[in-house]
Amino acid sequence: MQVFHTKSKVIITCNKRLSPYLLEEVKALGYDVVRDFPTGLELDITLSECIRLNLNLRCASQILYCLKSFKAGNPEELYREMVDMPWEELIDFSGYFSVTSNVDNPTITTPLFANLKVKDAIVDRIKDKKGIRPNSGSDANKAVVHLYWKDNDADVFIDTSGETLAKHGYRKIPGKAPMLEALAAATVLSTKWDQKSPFVNPMCGSGTLAIEAALIATNRRPGLFRMNYGFMHIIGYDEQVFFNERRILKDQVIKNVDLQIIATDISEDAVDVSRKNAKTAGVDTMITFEVCDFAETQVPEGGKGVVVFNPEYGERLGVHSKLESTYKRMGDFMKQECKGYFGYIFTGNPDLAKKIGLKATRKIEFYNGKLDCRMLEYELYDGTRRPEGERPTKD
User: Fold this and answer.
1) What is the C-alpha separation between 180 and 68, in angstroms, rounded?
2) Residue 320 CB coordination number (10 Å)
């Protein structure tokens, strides 16, 4: 099977509500999108082209290359279809593979049973053709086969990513209640930040938002921090294609950027973790870290920047009564200290959001895990706002 040079259906998955930002990323790389849906996109490309996407995308989770679409009403039919495929041309008999699945079929009570049927078919086929059984297990760091099975319709994919792309590889120390890197990148991309004016991140936690902002502004892609993907463990993989793409990533990094990124937190440990993560990402010299209460954050004068908060919202951390005053203080801080900026607060608690005391100009929908969240945007006017079209009066 010449999968590296044969076009097929490719599904790029992402967390729910990230698909608009993933769509913009894929289009910016020059790819035509067949369709988009709430948790991903569909393309028609080769497996070789998946290599470039794996290295470049910030908002994706997995990139799945379709090997076969078929009908299967029960586990026996699934097995027959799978054992008929030339797995010996895809997975080395001395190698290792794992199986993942998304199954909604009335004959299946647990996806693990479907995974076992797929695994058995692959092992039986390779043993029949090569005389040796490949190893298999749950680790996603080698070849990964993915089954999508809904009712009687099934698709079997190579998961070209393996480990999820949503983790960008630089965050060795996560800190408390960290925001997933793909979500952090999407929230930065959802703002009106021009990637040149100041980016201020009070309550920075483990620094993910500030680091993602620095990575975006300097065009540093996630592929710079990772050296293992699922596509590397498929027969026919040409490592030269990977190293060529990685060289392009290095060449396109924007150096010597004149940019102010400020990240503060009241926790000395959090700031220490942030610094270490930023150093791993290669952007520590771009970010000014400081230990202080968020209200003492030094906001550069001149306006036109953004200030972004990702506060506790009572789901996992903090106490509601205490957080009410915190949210009010955030509103006061933005109103008094961030004039001319756009302010953003990411929260999963609409009751606490009411305590901010400012009227949001936009409410951008996200999920953090399974929690329904909003990125609230505030236009923080510098001085008194005049009605549109009204001219200032002369003395």
Assistant:
1) 32
2) 12
Give the C-alpha separation, 156 to 74, whole Å. Answer: 15
Instruction: Give CA–CA dist 102/38, Å, rounded.
Output: 16
Between 181-190 and 208-217, two packed helices, what is the crossing angle to 10 degrees? 60
Provide Rg for the chain, Cα atoms: 24
- Nearest by Cα to 94 from 145, 125, 130: 130
Q: What is the pLDDT of residues 254-304, one digit of tens each?
A: 998 899 999 999 999 999 999 999 999 999 999 999 999 999 999 999 778
Question: What tokens were used for 160?
Answer: 């070209």
- What is the SS3 assignment for 149? strand
Q: How far apart are CA 67 and CA 161, in angstroms?
A: 15
Please state the length of the chain: 395
Report d(CA 120, CA 32) in Å as an integer: 36
Per-residue pLDDT reduced to its tens digit, 64-115 = 999 999 999 999 999 999 999 999 999 999 999 999 999 999 999 998 999 9
Strand locations in 19-91 (E): 35-37, 40-45, 62-71
